[in-house]
Write a structure and sequence with these properties.
single chain, 386 residues, mainly alpha, Formate dehydrogenase/DMSO reductase fold, 0% strand, globular
């Protein structure tokens, strides 16, 4: 089916060429700068040992898990409106997991050490289980997505006799990948921002807001650039899921503020103080966090109106706002906020360097290229069968 991805207009090939160039710049920066010089070329330090790479990994795990929001209603509840969009959610999950794994790879000072996880597993380490659930979820989506697409190409019913068990397993596995990722943070007693029982719930809520938002945006882009039919009923239901999930996400964030400031426990207050108000004269992330919160609230208020959801421009603006808000809050804000202040009370600020940003763009270029190829296969096969 890959032959379908080599057919396209000049605009399609210009986009593919752009993604290859972006991925190439990131790859060359990694090989000739970071791999040779080490992680010293990044903005990370002894006090802030996870930075922009792990922030992207954390966020993209949620984007991958969000495929559940279309797979579950279609396969478990037989919601036919999601018939044409379900495979897009599965292919989006594939691209997101590929980027997750790549960000883990580039975050390692010596990338060969990644082999230590499967070769010498530590069964009480959440890192080991995170790798297991991510690889399993990637495999499930590849098998399910490509099998369903191949059956659609032949205009036959998918082989549900053996495929349905895998689909049901993927439905259970989707929230698991983000729950295990949340446990990576919630299990660290020295980091008060992460030491909360609602960390997994916050992860899932933000995932089910940001992921479907991106999926709908991609859905509209495919409708504009090809003959792909946009199902307004499916879009409307996904937009409602985004609204509910983002409201829950903001509510859980409010619980964190109440717990920290009402208890007046300094360890719980200081990370939030640093992120939203500044701490000891350090306030590098304050504008970003307030922008994230205001943008998230404004986007929800916009999407609450049915008239706005019926207008494509307003809908896309609201969904983009939800996505960007979640990317800031769950990405750099969550990761850096967990390290500031340090267990000894020191404030060490962090900012990504130029090599970090170029490598990050390169990883996104790889992920976007994977998603582009998979989506192109879907478009070509559906135009062929139509």
């Amino acid at each position: 089916m890959l032959d379908k991805a080599i057919k396209g207009s000049k605009l399609y090939w210009a986009w593919v060429g752009f993604l290859i160039a972006v991925a190439g710049v990131g790859t060359l920066t990694y090989i000739f700068v970071q791999l040779r010089e080490g992680l010293g070329v990044t903005g990370m330090s002894r006090d802030v040992s996870w930075g922009f790479y792990i922030a992207q990994f954390t966020f993209l795990v949620g984007v991958a898990a969000s495929g559940l929001m279309v797979v579950l209603p279609y396969y478990l509840h037989h919601y036919k409106a999601f018939a044409k969009v379900t495979i897009l959610g599965e292919f989006l999950a594939i691209g997101a997991v590929v980027m997750c794994m790549t960000f883990i790879f580039v975050d390692l000072g010596m990338p060969t050490r990644v082999l230590n996880v499967p070769l010498y597993p530590t069964l009480n380490s959440m890192m080991f289980y995170d790798m297991v659930v991510l690889f399993t979820y990637l495999g499930l989506n590849v098998i399910i997505g490509l099998t369903v697409l191949a059956a659609e190409r032949k205009e036959k019913e998918p082989p549900y006799v053996w495929l349905k068990p895998l689909i049901y397993l993927s439905i259970a596995w989707a929230p698991l990948i983000h729950t295990v990722t949340a446990f990576l943070y919630a299990g660290l007693p020295g980091r008060h921002l992460w030491l909360t029982a609602v960390m997994a719930a916050r992860f899932l809520a933000s995932a089910f807001a940001a992921g479907p938002s991106l999926l709908i945006i991609f859905y509209f882009i495919m409708g504009k650039t090809s003959g792909f039919e946009v199902n307004r009923q499916a879009v409307g239901k996904l937009a409602q899921i985004v609204i509910y999930a983002m409201i829950i996400n903001l509510f859980l964030l409010g619980l964190e503020f109440f717990t920290a400031y009402y208890s007046q426990i300094p360890g719980h207050m200081d990370p939030l103080q640093y992120l939203y108000f500044g701490l000891e004269g350090h306030a590098r992330l304050v504008p970003f966090m307030w922008f994230s919160m205001i943008l998230g609230i404004a986007s929800i208020l916009l999407l609450l109106f049915p008239q706005a959801r019926a207008n494509n421009a307003a809908l896309i603006a609201g969904l983009a706002g939800v996505f960007i808000s979640s990317w800031i809050d769950k990405g750099l804000g969550l990761i850096v906020g967990g390290f500031v202040p340090s267990p000894l009370g020191h404030v060490t600020e962090y900012a990504p360097t130029i090599p970090e940003l170029l490598i990050t763009l390169g990883v996104y270029g790889i992920g976007a290229l994977v998603i582009t190829i998979l989506y192109k296969m879907v478009v070509e096969i559906r135009e062929e069968t139509a």
